[in-house]
Each structure stands twice: as structure tokens, then as C-alpha cells.
Write a structure and sequence with these properties.
Elements: H1 5-8, H2 11-14, E1 28-29, H3 41-53, H4 65-74, E2 82-86, H5 89-100, E3 106-111, H6 115-123, E4 127-132, H7 141-151, E5 155-159, H8 171-180, E6 184-188, E7 209-214, H9 216-220, E8 226-230, H10 232-239, H11 249-259, H12 262-285, E9 289-291, E10 298-303, H13 309-318, E11 321-322, E12 324-325, E13 336-340, H14 344-359
Parallel strand pairs: 1-11, 3-4, 3-5, 5-6, 6-7
Antiparallel strand pairs: 2-8, 7-8, 9-10, 10-13, 12-13
Bound molecules: pyridoxal-5'-phosphate (PLP).
Residues 33, 88-90, 114, 159, 163, 188, 190, 214, 216, 221, 226 line the site of pyridoxal-5'-phosphate.
């Protein structure tokens, strides 16, 4: 008699709910921190030609050397640092966790943070410690240092800027965490294009620092390409866990081509930053809305009057606008919602719909 899944699958996996991606067809999609702009037609035609002549009957270049050189150039990665590529940075988080997951080992982050840190700790059988942020979403350094001393985490993930709160933590405080950590600290700079700060320049100073980036929020979410930058001592080991052909040939070719025109993506990021300021100002002007500061391509806000976040979320959805409801995901996010900065037209649709809801 074969066993049923609940007899053989690990109980912690049975207890998980799958990462939920809501259907968004026909909606104004402001839920997933995507860049709303497409690439210029000329570049898209070049991409079409690359795809047409790609040798898809062959396995891709397992080392993706040419793409890595383009990344090194476009992202100003220091010569002395190595690069490891992942199928999105999600895969890199998983590779790191797999490497450090000895029995009893702890992965640490802050709360609220990117949910994949906790989920991947569970996937890989690691313990997880999430240290609550302060009510203004800054780092609680006393709690952080105490938790490091108590749990001795083998790896700490810090998103900089943080998701879902949008803020940059104090750089001095992050440095103190790196100095206090008994293991590695991964600074996840998924939103780097929208912030004017980075730990790239600190890699040489801290032997236990690794830096993660992704092309997803910059405009290539559909390609799935993330990267880890760090010293070869670490990356040589992590490379052993990377599945040999994790970056497909089409992703390699297209990412390299687009990186040669990186200025286009950076210009789009600048437009998004301008729109972010406009949108924050309009939201702040609304009665019953508290807006949190952001250095990312999204805005976290709290509804403070009458409406519950769930009602606002559903009301927006009924009006064709999809954002993210964070109420219930963490006590600090009571009645909070997160909206991605879209095109000026999309943002206007969102603001009009929200204003109408708040008046009812
Ligand atoms: C979106 C996001 C990622 C994942 O990005 P992918 O490269 O698309 O897998 C990683 N970290 C943070 C903080 C994010 O918000």
C-alpha cells in the first residue's frame, strides 16, 4: 500500500501555504513591484533576432561568462569579487540556505521582511528567527544584537531597501549587524535602482558580507535573473549547489543585450522615482491615509479611518486595480497596503479609485 502524502511529506511542508500569486488578467497591476514600461521597439526587434537564432537545441553556457562580464560592467561590480547567477534571486536565497542548513542552524531576518527568507528557511530545514522592527520600521538594534547573541545565526538576510516596508535601514546599524554576526550577512539589494545607497563598496571591508541583486524590479522580471556578489571563498562553495544550467540560453542572450542598453532601464527607474514622489504626495494629502517613506518602487500606506485594509483592497479590485493587502501578515502592518509605482496613468487610476473608496 503506497503511503498518502501526509504520511511521507515533511510536516513543516504540509503546514505551509504555497506562495500565492493572484490572477491579474485585465487589471491595473500594481501588486508585484514590476517596472510598468516596455523596451523601445528597436531593442525589442534586436531581442527577437537573438531569440530566433539562439541555439536552443544545446545546453546553455553553464558559466554564463559573457553575461557575467556584462553584469560586471553595468552594475560596477568590483574586480576582486565573484558573481554567482540564480534563476531570480529567490533561487540564490535557496542556494545559500541549502549550503548553511546543518541540523539546528538558524537563518535570521527582520519582521516584516521579504517572505521568502522565512519560507526558504523552512524548505531547507533551517530554524528561523525574525526580529521585529520598530513601529517606524527602523532596525531595533538592541533586539537584533540580543537575537544574534542568542541564536548564533549562520546567515542573516537584510533587504536594503526593505520589502514590504520600502525604507532603507540605517547603514551604520547594518554595518554593526555585519560586525556582530557569527556567520554571513546577505544584503539583498533588489530595489537598488530606486535607492541611492548600496553595500557594494563594503564588500572589501567585510569578509562575511554577501550582496544580492536582481534584474526583476529593474524591468526584466519575466527573464528571472538574480545575482550574488562576494568573495570567491564563499562563492566557490555556493557554486557547488547551483544546478548546472539554471540560467537558460534565452535569458542569457536577452539579459546581456538589454544590459548593453542599461541606460534605458535606469531612465525608466528615474521616471518611476519621479512618479513615486508625486504619488506619495497625493496619498499623503488624502484624509485617512498614512504614508510611509520609501526608497523602493512601491509605497506602503495605512488606512486610518473607517475603512479596513481588506475593504480597501477589495474595493480597488472591484474597480480594476490590484495592489497588495498586508493586513494580517504582521502586527506592525495592521491596516497596511502596498502599491507598486506604475505609469502616471495607472497611478492616477489607483488614486482616483482609492479617493472614491475613502469618501464612501
Ligand atoms: C522581489 C524581491 C526578490 C526576488 O526577486 P527575484 O529576483 O525576482 O527572485 C528578492 N528580494 C526582495 C527583497 C524582493 O523584494
Amino acid at each position: 500500500m503506497p503511503s498518502s502524502p501526509d504520511q511521507i511529506i515533511r510536516p513543516e511542508i504540509l503546514a505551509l501555504s504555497a506562495y500565492h500569486v493572484p490572477p491579474a488578467s485585465g487589471m491595473v497591476k500594481l501588486d508585484a513591484m514590476e517596472n510598468p514600461y516596455s523596451l523601445p521597439l528597436e531593442l525589442r526587434e534586436e531581442i527577437a533576432q537573438l531569440a530566433a537564432s539562439a541555439p536552443i537545441n544545446r545546453y546553455p553556457d553553464a558559466s554564463a561568462a559573457s553575461l557575467k562580464a556584462a553584469l560586471r560592467e553595468a552594475l560596477a561590480i568590483p574586480d576582486r569579487m565573484d558573481i554567482m547567477l540564480g534563476n531570480g534571486s529567490d533561487e540564490i536565497i535557496q542556494i545559500i540556505a541549502l549550503a548553511f542548513a546543518r541540523p539546528g542552524a538558524m537563518l535570521m531576518s527582520v519582521e516584516p521582511a521579504f517572505v521568502m527568507f522565512r519560507m526558504i528557511a523552512t524548505f531547507t530545514g533551517m530554524g528561523y528567527a525574525g526580529v521585529p522592527l520598530k513601529a517606524d520600521f527602523s532596525l531595533d538594534m538592541d533586539a537584533m544584537l540580543a537575537a544574534i547573541a542568542r541564536h548564533q545565526p549562520v546567515v542573516i538576510f537584510i533587504a536594503y531597501p526593505n520589502n514590504p516596508t520600502g525604507n532603507l535601514f540605517d547603514a551604520e546599524a547594518v554595518s554593526r549587524i555585519i560586525e556582530a554576526a557569527p556567520g554571513v550577512v546577505v544584503v539583498d539589494e533588489a530595489y537598488h535602482a530606486f535607492a541611492d545607497a548600496s553595500f557594494m563598496g563594503k564588500l572589501a571591508q567585510y569578509p562575511n558580507l554577501l550582496l544580492m541583486r536582481t534584474l526583476s524590479k529593474l524591468g526584466l522580471a519575466g527573464l528571472r535573473l538574480g545575482l550574488l556578489v562576494g568573495r570567491s571563498e564563499w562563492l566557490i562553495q555556493l557554486e557547488k549547489l547551483r544546478l548546472p544550467y539554471n540560467i537558460g540560453i534565452v535569458t542569457q542572450l536577452i539579459a546581456e543585450k538589454v544590459l548593453q542598453h542599461c541606460d534605458i532601464l535606469l531612465q525608466q527607474a528615474e521616471s518611476i522615482k519621479i512618479e513615486r514622489a508625486v504619488m506619495s504626495e497625493r496619498l499623503t494629502a488624502m484624509d485617512g491615509v498614512k504614508v510611509f517613506p520609501t526608497d523602493a518602487n512601491f509605497i506602503l500606506f495605512r488606512v486610518t479611518q473607517l475603512n479596513e485594509a481588506g475593504e480597501v483592497f477589495q474595493g480597488l479590485k472591484n474597480r480594476g486595480v490590484l495592489i497588495k493587502n498586508l493586513d494580517g501578515s504582521h502586527p506592525l502592518l495592521k491596516n497596511c497596503l502596498r502599491v507598486t509605482v506604475g505609469t502616471p496613468g495607472e497611478n492616477a487610476q489607483f488614486l482616483v479609485a482609492l479617493q472614491a473608496l475613502l469618501k464612501t
